[in-house]
Input
Amino acid sequence: LCPASAIAPDGDAVTVDPALCGGCGLCAGACPTSAITYAYPDVQSLHQRIMTLAAAYRDAGGKAPRLLIHDDKTGIQLIEAAARYGRGLPADTIPIAVNEVGQIGHDIALGALAQGFQEVVLLTDPRRPDDYAGLELQLGVTEAILTGLGDAGGRVRVLDTQDPDALSESLFGSRPATTLPAAVFVPLGRKKAVTRLAAKGLAAALGASVEAVPLPE
Output
């Protein structure tokens, strides 16, 4: 996945060339075991931030929040432009900035949904398609787990735009048709552990009794 070819075999391990690495985060987002991780923000801190946002929204009386994940450069500029010159964001949409959207894996998306977010939208920059080459697969895994547990799905998507009006229109114009119940779940451990805990929590919340969920190849 590395668009900079910064990762190379090194005997029984791999090596990352820091002179080539551009920090897109695709390797960390795709790695299912946390053998390689993103340093800032680290995944545990990101889970904690998402959990805090969900709890604060519920404490304020909110019912069905949505999460907009964007980078801390062009994403912030786009949101600010939408707020200043257009409709801005819907009241149910909570933005959260990360260094690179490419670092988002299925554990983060599923964890956010288990915390009570009804939708996870990833805002990407169409000028940098190589930096998001693994996102669709990660969202596909999330979608497969949700639908395998009996949810209608359609809760994770990529919004690839530089147009502030298109950002607002997409968020105002599309919402999940059904409500996903929040799970009793604390995001602890590495990626597989967080994914397993989130899935078990959602299974209980949805009343699912499946033994196994088929995943994408």
